[in-house]
Amino acid sequence: MAQLGPDGLSEQWLLRDCGDRHWQLIALAMGQARAVFTDADGRPVYAAFCATSLELEAPGPGALGGVLGLRSALFRLGASRIGSIHHLAVDGRPAGRLRMISTFVGHGPEGGNRGILRRPPLRRVVLPEAGPELSDLAAHSRATVRALAPARPEPAPLLAVTPCPALDFNAVGLLYFPAFSALAERARTARPGPLARRDVIYLGNVDPGDSIALHPEPGQGAGALGLWRPDGVRIATVRSRYHQ
């Protein structure tokens, strides 16, 4: 039941579960029993996501009580990023794929979530080089960011909301990455069908108490939304597609 929603597999459950798998796989590759990471100076660092891409097949009948299979693998993407691929099956039938790319970050000297900095972990990890599934996602994400309009659109946002610290932030005080997808889902004005694909590029974060405004992304096609902080900084761009 926890893994399902009205349209089949729960996106929020899946992101949280695979996010934890991603962290645990990194710890395992580093020879650690726990997914707790520090840099060379002993400061905490976190495997923060740069991009995720979730693809879901149209839900079939009888999902409740079915057997969910998840096959996960971890890869290296250049010198500073790590990617994972999670293949999903329900009762042996392919049900979707989640691709995730992360880099290690830490809080800057002033603290707060507006000053997150890239910071390598103390322990290095040896992984196989990523193939096209992840390298294509990385290249597409870079191209998307380059094509984004630099300024926030002027019209009123589709949704303006202040995330709840107890519900939307994680244990290290960052707006948790599944919350970005949840906000994009709340902003849609029509319900064409179950989710088919959601691509998220994470560009920043917010502090508890900050509001987030969601605007359409000009020139990025239907279903593309930008998430903006009050200081005019885009913290994410989200593209969503749905089964008809």
From TrEMBL:
InterPro entries: LnmK-like_bifun_acyl/decarbox
Entry superkingdom: Bacteria
Family annotation (NCBIfam families): biosn_Pnap_2097, LnmK_bifunc
Name of the protein in question: Uncharacterized protein
Organism ancestry: Bacteria, Pseudomonadati, Pseudomonadota, Alphaproteobacteria, Rhodobacterales
